[in-house]
Amino acid sequence: MHVHILGICGTFMGGIAALARAAGHRVTGSDQGVYPPMSDQLAALGIELIEGYDPQQLKLQPDIVVVGNVMSRGNALIEALLESGIPYTSGPQWLAQHVLASRWTLAVAGTHGKTTTSSVLAWILEFAGLDPGFLIGGMPGNFNVSARLGSGRHFVVEADEYDTAFFDKRAKFVHYRPRTAVLGNLEHDHADIYPDVAAIQWQFHQLLRMVPRHGLVVANAGDANVMQVIEMGCWTPVERFAGSAAADSWQAVAPAGGDYSSFAVMHGERCVATLEWSMPGRHNAQNALAAILAARHAGVDIDTAVAALREFRGIRRRLELRGVVDGITVYDDFAHHPTAVAATIDGLRRRIGESRLIAVLEPRSNTMKLGTHREALADSLSQADRVWMYQGTEVQWDVAGAVASLGERAQVVRELEALLDALERSLVAGDHVLIMSNGGFGGIHAKLLTRLASRGPRQR
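and the corresponding structure tokens:
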């Protein structure tokens, strides 16, 4: 079968391409504005990539077109597709029909931490010898691919609540029908689609309606919005984590003042296991805890899961170390929602102590472009010593006003080269630079490291 994928360089659609290729199909696709790591993964798979959305690509005469949710009515290629009579489907529907139908699906949902939790869960199952398949919105270091079929019974999928396609406005995850479902947390996000938290909770409720009676829901009991979804109706056993320590809930407990790279797995007041691993931050410890419980449902004992965590190698673009030049450390992180920004900064602050932390943020997501969370922005950045905000042309709200309470610590820059100039002038040995964006950010990480290497050492 010839599968042609529109929007192929998104992390999800790129994963669909990898799965289709592994299943023996001919795969082609198109996109615009591509950047690593997905472009590198597609090239390594030998998948033909067409730049842009010219309708002429339909002359390839694919057997089916898989349409990414980046595509919309009015696009010339979409209009030509609808006129052509060529069969088309969405990525989630293709995945459900061609991959998940015969598998034990473990779906990881939530506003934050889906990629980390999915990556940890897939690695635990792999470490246990179960050879899982997976589709993850990132590149786990233990696999160096975002998707694979696997030969085992289990399949881990990062379950996104974003809409499916221009012809299917349901959340992606309603297609997956999981046996094991993780609800990590829930906040207002995707403001271009959902007007408020209640609208997102309704979608999560639809997901719970599909989990079978003998399945399992792993739920964050410390998140009131998640618990409200459970109360809306749940017909499946629920394993709770991050709730009250006195209750029958699972906890990740770090030593006082610790960065959570070492923590105890507690069930109620009983210590079940202790571990050290490579990921700092309380949020990552809770992601790991959710993965442990989901893997336990799939038959992996906690000791094995903890042993797997000790060998977890992190994820591309999740507090990823990009380089150290003359004592200046540069990180890349996908954080873009204020809650994720605050959690990432807190995790790094716990690790580096009193060293200077410079936060560089691009408000790039649709929600951030709309300014939905502007009032929470300054507080999310408050642990940084310096803050640089990059205001692209699509961001029309008052970014400077949103971070004004940070005083002289915060600066807003509208040109990438100006931002690089300012960073190069201000950075000194011992600084930690945390660059946050859910896009490529103009390759700022490599450009900054190159500039720092060429200027020579500079002391505080």
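(Above: one complete record from the training split.) The first helix runs from residue 11 to 22.
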